[in-house]
Amino acid sequence: MSETSCVDWKLFDPQAIDPETAAFNRKIEEELAAAPFLYTLEPQVIRDAREAGQSIFGPIKRSDEARTRRVPGPAGEIPIRVFIPEQVRGIYLHIHGGGFVLNRADHYDEAILRVGKACQVAVVSVDYRLAPENRYPAAPDDCEAVAVWLAAHGGSEFGSEQLMIGGESAGATLAAVTLLRLRDRHHFTKFGGAVLNYGIYDLTLTPSSRRWGERNLVLTTKLLEWFHKNYAPAEKYTDPDISPLYADLSGLPPALFTIGTLDPLLDDSLFMHMRWRAAGNASELAIYPGGIHAFNAFPIAIADRANRRMEEFIVKAVSRS
Fold first, then answer.
1. If you classify domain 9-320 with CATH, what class do you get?
2. How many other CB atoms are found less than 10 A from the CB of residue 236?
3. I need a surface site. Which of 37, 73, 252, 264 has the fewest CB within 10 A?
């Protein structure tokens, strides 16, 4: 793993992939080869299967320790999934992934509880509106509204005003957009850090995404195109509010970009990390040999290492704030 601004080319050597990760990747590829490509199905069919535990991620494990609340939003109340540990040192605003089309906040209970307990932060996960029923700008509007609510009420609601933000895949995209909206629309720049995991920062497709093809390790090129088509009109893909790689990134908090070498979105993180730094912000890049998209959601050693690294980053950012 590299934690510096320089990228170690050895991380991309196939020999750097440990046997456990290689075996896991083969298993995932075999399982997905026996199933239809997601982009051939209707979104609700995929959602129903996920709710029934019929996906590579297995059964959804909701926790009694997490609660669903609602906060005001631009189109009605927005559900948020909340976990509050015994001691609260900060607040982590989490935005889930799913290509802007799939998943719900309560699918991530295990992840938010782990972060909350390990980092002593209250976790608020946004159950934003999904495409294609609610296309852009519904999702970022909801995330912005929850962030503004937290900025105003975090202290009274959770006992801390130390804010962090993060997400995975489309959630990382929305987290970056939320930071930009709060900076530009609300003159708020008090988030202490951003945990941005394998995000989609250019919906026109970076070279690694465009050249990936149909090898199915969670994502394929056609699946990415399907997600993006459902989310927003193609003529708007270079709008910084949709593809934050095109934004003015100055004045943003320290970020940790996490990516695996076998993720089609590899270039998105490489490019965004360097643009983040070039804009004058602190940025760290964690690269995991053989990591596929969403690799840290699975029970393998590189997932444990990646999750510990994220938790360390959150703890340091909360302490710094």
1. alpha beta
2. 14
3. 37
Tens-binned pLDDT, residue by residue, of the chain (321 aa) = 444 456 888 999 999 999 999 999 999 999 999 999 999 999 999 999 999 999 999 999 999 999 999 999 999 999 999 999 999 999 999 999 999 999 999 999 999 999 999 999 999 999 999 999 999 999 999 999 999 999 999 999 999 999 999 999 999 999 999 999 999 999 999 999 999 999 999 999 999 999 999 999 999 999 999 999 999 999 999 999 999 999 999 999 999 999 999 999 999 999 999 999 999 999 999 999 999 999 999 999 999 999 999 999 999 999 876
Separation of alpha carbons 146 and 272, rounded Å = 24
Beta-ladder partners of 195: 166, 256
Is the torsion defined by CA of 273, 172, 115, 24 positive or negative?
negative
What phi and psi values does residue 169 have, to the nearest 5 degrees? Answer: 55, -125
- DSSP-assigned letter for residue 204: T
Q: Between vectors from CA 197 to CA 195 and to CA 199, what angle results, nearest 5°?
A: 115
Return the amino acid letter for 107: H
State the catalytic residues.
169, 263, 293
Q: Are 116 and 93 in contact (CB under 8 A)?
A: no
Instruction: Give the start-to-end residue ranges of the domains of the chain.
Output: 9-320
For the record, the structure tokens of 200 come out as 């989609």
